[in-house]
Design goal:
By secondary structure, the protein is mostly helical. It has helices spanning about 10-20, 25-35, 45-50, 55-65, 85-105, 115, and strands spanning about 40, 70-75, 80-85. Strands 1-3-2 form a 3-stranded antiparallel beta sheet. The chain starts with 9 loop residues before the first helix and ends in a 14-residue tail after the last helix.
Length: about 130
C-alpha cells in the first residue's frame, strides 16, 4: 500500500494523541476554556472560575503543562498560566460549534411522523371548482 503524501507523520500523530489525552477531562477542558478567554491567569483565579479547589486545579495544570498545552510565566511568587498553542483555541471553537449544532438542532424531516404530513382525505376542506 502506497503512503499518501498528505498523510501526517506518525511521530506527529503520537504527539497530538498525547496532547488530546491530556485535555480529555472535563475540568481540563474547562481550564483550557478559561485560558482561551484571558491571556494569562493565576491558578487561584482559574480555580475560582472552574468552581474547584486550587490544589486540584494545580494538579490538572501540571498535567497540561507536561503535555505542552499550557505554559507558565513566573512573577515573584505568582505563576501565570496561558495556552501554549493558539491551535487549542481552534479545538475549543470546534467543540463549541459541535455543542451548538447538537443542542439547537431543528427536527429532521425523517424524525417527523409520516401521519402528521399526510392528513386524511376527510380532513381536507372542500375546494369549489371554478367554471
Amino acid at each position: 500500500m502506497a503512503s499518501d503524501e498528505n498523510q501526517l507523520p506518525s511521530a506527529y500523530l503520537a504527539d497530538v494523541s498525547d496532547k488530546l489525552k491530556a485535555i480529555s477531562h472535563p475540568l481540563r477542558l474547562r481550564i483550557a476554556e478559561t485560558l482561551e478567554k484571558q491571556e494569562e491567569v493565576k491558578v487561584g483565579d482559574i480555580a475560582g472560575v472552574c468552581g474547584e479547589n486550587q490544589p486540584l486545579v494545580s494538579q490538572h495544570l501540571t498535567q497540561m503543562r507536561r503535555a505542552g498545552i499550557v505554559s507558565t510565566r513566573r512573577k515573584g511568587t505568582q505563576v501565570f498560566y496561558r495556552l501554549a498553542n493558539e491551535n487549542f483555541k481552534k479545538i475549543l471553537g470546534c467543540l463549541r460549534d459541535d455543542y451548538n449544532d447538537t443542542q439547537h438542532k431543528p427536527p429532521v424531516y425523517s424524525d417527523l411522523k409520516k401521519e402528521s404530513l399526510t392528513p386524511e382525505s376527510d380532513d381536507l376542506p372542500e375546494i369549489p371548482l371554478i367554471p
